[in-house]
What we know:
Number of helices: 3
Shape: flat
Number of strands: 9
Strand content: 15-25%
Oligomer: single chain
Order of helices and strands: HEEEEEEHEHEE
Largest sheet: 5 strands, antiparallel
Helix content: 10-25%
Amino acid sequence: MQNKRLIIALAAAVAFGLIAAVSVSRYLASAQAYTKNLSNVVVAKVEIPLGSRIVPEQLTVAQFPKTVAPEGTFAVIDDKVIGRVTTVRIGVREPITESRLAAVGVAAGLPSLIPEGFRAMTVKVDDVVGVSGFIQPGTLVDIVVTIIPPDTAKLREKVSKIVLQNIKVLASGQNIDKPKNEKDTDRVKAVTLQVTPEQAEKLALAASEGRLQLVMRNSVDQSDEKTPGANKTTLLAGEAALPVPEPGLGPKDGEKPKTAPRRPKRVQSAPVAAKATATAPAPPPRPSIEVIKGAKKENVDFP
C-alpha cells in the first residue's frame, strides 16, 4: 500500500515537473521572440522646445516593437541627431524622427521654421489688431487693410478689404513656440508672419499705406473667400442675421459654407397721381319729425 502511494506521488511530481519545464521553455521562447522583435529608438529624455538645437543630454535610447515604431527613427545617438534643429515641440519619451527635424545645417530659432519658398515678415500689432493676445505661433489669420483707394483719393473715402488669407503666424513677439499655459500669454507688439515673396510686397504696402487688422480663422478652414470689400455705403446698408454655428464645425461634405443672404433691393413705387376732381362732401341730414295719423306713422322733412 505504501509503495503504491509512493509511486503515485513520484508520478505526480514527474508530471508537474514536465508541465513546469514545458511552461518555462515556452515562456523563454516567447520572450526571446519578443526581444528579437524589438528595435532601439532614440527618444527625448526631457522636453525639447520648438526651434532648438538638440544636445546629447536631451536624448536616450528606448526599445520599441518593430511593428509600432514610427518611420524615420534613429537607432543610435550620433551626428545624425545631435546638432539638428527641431521643427516641432518634442515631449518626454517621444521618438525623434526625421520629419521633426530641420535639414542639416539649418540655424536654430526662427529660420528653421520657414519652409522653402517662403519668407518671415514682422508687422506691428496692438491689443485690437492682435485679437487681444489670442494670436499665438501656429495660428492662421486673414489680413484686412483699411485704405483710401487711388480713385477716391479726392473724396477721402476709406475702403476695408481682405488682402491676404490663410497666413500662418510664426512668432508672437520673440516667442516661436506656444506657451504651456495659455493664461500666461503676454501682450506683444509684433507678430511674425509666414508669407511668400509676393505676399510680402503686398503686406509691406498695406502696412505703410493703411491700417492692418488680423482676423483669426479656424486651423481646419482652408477655404478661399472672395469679398468685394466694404465702404461707407455698404456699411450703412446693414447685413442680414445668420444662425450661429457650433464651435469648430464647418460645412458638411459637399455643402457650401453659408453666406449672408442678399438684401432685396427696395423698389420705390411711383407716386399715385392725385384725382383731378375732389369728392364732394355728403350733404348734412335734413331735420324731420315723426307724425302719427291714426294707425299710420310717417316722417315729415323740414325744408
